[in-house]
């Protein structure tokens, strides 16, 4: 009997020590605390907390169920320039044209006003001057059900017009923010059967990105159809331009934030966070780029062993790529050779924007034009992803678990925690079985 207690005690101590070390040494946890603390200081008292980098870098943090979601701006010297954690999720962030340190962001939080029957959220577009902290509400809607994610991306089209990607209704629409009137809309149901994608209507298409192209077309990301689609506002989807197809995970697997690179910068090309493939990938349009007989060809890919569920990648004018790696809790910049030249810890980053470089990837060259070098790691065979249960594949399960874990806990820590729980249960069962009178737990060493 003494032997099994020794074994159980050793396992418990080792697991608890491992989890304790992770809890107190988590870089993402420490970063959250540091950024919050620095934001509370006067400007001249703030220290450099991340490596310096030219221009201001703004990061929108998704967080999880309200935990540690934040919009944070870092100055060129690595100091916290701005911090906002009033919403429970931050998503798109775009520079405001004609300004140096003003951005517009998309965010959401719970809403329990009198006009809400049940559980609601408010999705909002706000404008903030990062220097003064002045915030202006641009547009918002109360959504009568907590869908977990309602808007992830909104693009400004003019002084009074916004292009909204609405996950909650699986549609894109243009709204006049002065009148509140919708002037154009497109629904995913116009082009895709509801038998595909995710569960209908709760999270069917998950339309998570919108972008108006220079020629007036709209590029959309349909996450659950594993596709980036191009919509002509008069004729609808241009099927020959569609990048990816549902369940063809070798091309895209539940992607986020595709950016279009136009012809003047070496395109047509699309750089996209290929989220569940744990990579950043770029596709070049070849043959009939402006016609109907072209095709997409992979031209660049980047990944490393840490990458887990990236959700944004911006091509900068110097050929570098700024990446938000959500489940690895980091934002990084890689150069033309694929080397990491800048990296910061940040809890669940959704999108990052480097001010002064153009909105998203508009100022950056294509991989082909900049002669970028691909870098990657071998991932599991895509054939392993063909079997799903209730729409979940093995890789989707592991990333979903990683996303809902506590801030400080890695996937390895979760396995350690599971071992700890199972060990304690087994110990309890054995002690109960061997106890004829009452339950008694004994450590192998008694103090007299």
Features of this protein?
single chain; 448 residues; alpha+beta; Neuraminidase; 4-stranded antiparallel beta sheet; 5 helices; 17% helix; globular
Explain what the structure shows.
By secondary structure, the protein is α+β, with helices and mostly antiparallel strands. The protein has a single domain (about 25-405), classed as TolB, C-terminal domain (Neuraminidase). Helix content is about 15%, strand content about 35%. It contains 5 helices and 24 strands. A 4-stranded antiparallel sheet has the order 3-2-1-24. Strands 4-5-6-7 form a 4-stranded antiparallel sheet, with no helix packed on it. Helix 1 runs antiparallel to helix 5 (about 410-435). It starts with a helix and ends in a 14-residue tail after the last helix.
